[in-house]
Structure formats: structure tokens, C-alpha cells
Amino acid sequence: MNPNPLKILVLFYSRRGSTLNLARQIARGIESVAGCEAVLRTVPKVSTVCEAVEKDVPDSGAPYATAEDLKTCAALALGSPTRFGNMAAAMKYFIDGTIPQWLGAELAGKPATVFASGAGLHGGQESTLLSMMLPLLHHGMIISGIPFSEHALNHTQSGGTPYGASHVAGHGGKAALTPDEHEIAFAQGKRLAELAVKLAG
To answer: How confident is the prediction for the chain on average, in pLDDT?
Structure first.
């Protein structure tokens, strides 16, 4: 057992569990690589009422991400539900607050990947994935996608793109991943971890 594993941050926002399920599968892929540990973190909801605040610690699930999580991670997997073809406001709000990390180049040179979920097959998952890549590029991160050498990407009838894992949740918000979505998310996490190991030398 490695006493100092590479910590790979799986940072996500999820309302109905779909993005969380992708995050868990990506984490399994990460931890299939020797010497790597997945660290699951989330972000608080954003309120339209200025006085509303979230608890410092969530009632359940993953803890909220901190600046230290970003600084100490060896790699980052960023996930969000689709909101009109873009990342959710809660994730955008968190990312907008990473200017100190940008000024300090704390994420520069680290590998990153993105994942998303949405209600419909053509609901904007790919543009959401692309929107999440933009701030990571500004941070100087190395973006990793999913190559078509991954078998499930060639025949999926649900989620999965070369830009990142995705899940089609349906309008009822069902959270179950298809076998292809499972396989693609696992492969994405494994690929990110392998890249982190190589870059760590």
C-alpha cells in the first residue's frame, strides 16, 4: 500500500444523483490504478436569495471542496449537470472563485477531465463538457478526453462522448447508469489516473 498516494480530485455538483453516480464510477476507475486515491468533493447550491447560506458541512454525501483540495490534487475530474448547454450555476460560481489558484498557477500542468449528465440525449451534454474545459485551460491544465479505442464509446446508445463521460438521465431524472456509461466513466477515471502517474514521474 502506497503511504503517499496521488490524490485525484473528483469535483462535482449533483441535484438528483446522476452526476454523483458518474463521479463514483470515475472514482472507481481512478482507484484501479496503483498509487492513486480518488477524493470526492462537491460544491454548495447557489441561492437567488442573498441572505440564504448553506451549512459549512453538507448533511450527507461528499464534503464541500476547499482551496486546499485544489492545491494538493495531482489531477482533477470536474462534473456537472447540464443547464441549457452549460455547467450548473453552483459549479460555475465555485470555478469563478478560483482566481487565487489561477494567480498562483496551482493547477498549471496538472491533468484534468470533465463529465456531465442531462435529461435528454440532445440536451447539451457536449457543450456542457466543452464549457467546463475552458476555465481549466485558463488554469493551464492538461485536458484528457476519451479515445475511440474505448470499446463502449463506439456503440453507446446513451451517454458518452470523446469530450468526457456523460449520462442521459431522462426527464424523470432517473439516476441509473447504462452499462456503456459505467464503462466509459470508469475508463475516463483510469485514463486520468494513469496520466497523473506519468506526469508525476
So the answer is: 92
CA distance 174 to 181: 14
Selection from 196, 193, 195, 197 nearest residue 29 by Cα: 193
Cell of 66: 476547499
* CB neighbours of residue 158 within 10 Å: 17
Q: For residues 129 and 164, is the Cβ–Cβ distance under 8 A? A: yes
pLDDT, one tens digit per residue, over 60-100 is 679 999 999 999 999 999 999 999 999 999 999 999 999 99
Give the span between the Cα atoms of 42 and 44, in whole angstroms: 7
C-alpha distances (whole Å) from 180 to each of 105, 133, 159, 168, 184 are 36, 23, 8, 11, 6
Contact 1, 164 (CB under 8 A): no
Contact assessment for residue 142 and residue 100, using Cβ atoms and an 8 Å cutoff: no
